[in-house]
Amino acid sequence: MGSSSLPRPPLHTVLPPLILGTATFNTQYVTDPLSMPYRDIVAHAIDLGVNCFDTSPYYGPSEILLGSALDALMNPQPTDANPSPVPLDRSSFKIVTKAGRIVMNEFDYSPAYIRYSVLRSLQRLHTSYVDLVYCHDVEFVSPAETLAAVRELRRLRDEEGVVRYVGISGFPVDVLCSLAEMILAETGEPLDAVLSYGHFTIQNRALGLPWIAPDFDGNGAGSPLARLKAAGVGVVLNASILGMGLLTNRGIPVDPEPELANDSPLAKWHPSPPELRLACKKLAALAATEDERLESVAIRWALETWARVGAAADIGVCASTQSLKVGATVCGVSSIAELQETVAEWRGVMALLETPAVAEEATLARREKVLALVEGKFWPSLGPWLDYVWASPGPGFVNTRREEDRGTAPDDGVVAPYDIPSRPPSPSNLTACNPSNPILLTPTYASRVNI
To answer: Which top-level group of life is the source organism from (predicted)?
Structure first.
């Protein structure tokens, strides 16, 4: 039931250029993710042609909610209005998850825990394999730990068939580059993918420099993307194009305490300094002078510019045709309206990339308007905060995982079914769909998730 018998073509021919991120299915972004229309969001994404989903066990109930939504589509129940629903085939969409980060300051990259995490993800996601797994936020652990985790993920790929592609994710770009180079040197095999977040936005362009500089001569030697390409990385993905909520009309308040009463959890955990939050808040006012929302401008600029940079640096994925390669982006949404807005902007981008000679005048005009706003107003307004990067991990970080717990997997029944050779696990005999199962659902969610 795993993926070992399935072909593994290059990842750039497999991943789509627009991926729905579900970090927003989490209390870090919304007060109550269980009240979100998560099933409708996932179903509508499929209808709109968005057929790849990014999640993580670190994102609170995200895997559980995404798995519930996908299971409802793969095993639809007849209704009076639709007595013979057509099941969604697992091969028609991709699932991407992560492993190694447990909670905010707790990490375990040991092979035993990585295996446990992946197998638990399979149960939560109602699938027998995951298309791509990242080591989550690699800057918080040692290079040796990352190497061990990558080796285990590849073993899960080759021996157990539950993983198809392997990558790493994280915040500091130089760390991602160094680890990709180290993994190639140590194993002789490059990473399939690297996920970078928050480093190619209208505020922080670091991942794409010098490719977007006005005087760029086509030689990106020494740049992050050139290093990743030289390390053999198949695909570099860009995520958090709104800066984890920083680049929105609402923005992030400077003082977290008063905001707690306003049902916005971002202020308390977001790593941005107060001055950067204020600088980004000014961008919303500038956008309003042009009858634009900051979110729309930020999404459009990042989607289009990264699509072009990904193509130029040759770290993108195939778009609608095998001959068109573009940079891939992970976009998180928390409502149908946000999903529709993102897809509409992406379609405008693709219209310009696929058939620029016949692009509609309105599409061209929007592109010019966005560029004028970003380059002519936003960047000058940001001043010293343009391309500012906060430290990750922050000062004083300590991994709170107890030494005696590292290298062990919880004895909670997750691993056992996979250790019985005569009974390979499949979605039909996994127990993740039981809301009363304490293995997979914390008490907070167990009584409320309709799975």
So the answer is: Eukaryota
